[in-house]
Amino acid sequence: MSKSLDLGCGPNPKNPFLATEVFGVDINNFGNSNIRSADLVIDPIPFEDNFFNYVSGFDFLEHIPRIIYIGKERKQPFIDIMSEVWRILKPGGETFFATPAYPKPEAFQDPQHVNIITENSINYFTESGLLELTHSYGFKGQFKVIQHEWATKPIRICENSQYDIVPFHLIWHLKAVK
After folding, report:
1. What pTM value is reported for the model?
2. Which domains does the chain have, with CATH numbers?
3. What is the DSSP string of the chain?
4. Which of 23, 40, 67, 79 is surrounded by the fewest CB atoms within 10 Å?
């Protein structure tokens, strides 16, 4: 039995890995018992450690700010969400993100896109040599790259999906190293 979590899922969690159990996290649970409500800019992912085989996020990372202040306390939600994804993945668990990224105009046009991802942003969370620096920022974890590329044509994320990845998205497919 495999479990998958879709971050920022809306009313229908996506299941790109065709897991047997599918959960979601969004600001609203939409009356769905498999969706937990959390504001992932400030809240941890509401699941226990090493719970999921898979985590996905479609059009999600660009909505997570890099730095915020709550009162006088500085938070780094982007670093924190990547730590949280690593925390809830089982050893060897996989994550799949698709996000509009620089230099594509879609990365900038939505006023809620507050985190501009580049082709090199992934290097701060993988074995690329920048991991030590990211750990000094507070990142807790490590990922290995499985796939990192631009979607050059619409991609159906799974056979039964209504959701396609559009061409201006950058794909991160990573494995949790634990």
Report:
1. 0.93
2. 3-176 (3.40.50.150)
3. --EEEEET-TTS---TT--SEEEEEESS-TT-TTEEE--TTTS--SS-TT-EEEEEEES-GGGS-S-EEETTEEE-HHHHHHHHHHHHEEEEEEEEEEEE-TTSTHHHHSTT--S---TTGGGGGBTTS-HHHHHHHT----EEEEEEEE--S-EESSTT-S-EE-TTEEEEEEEE--
4. 67
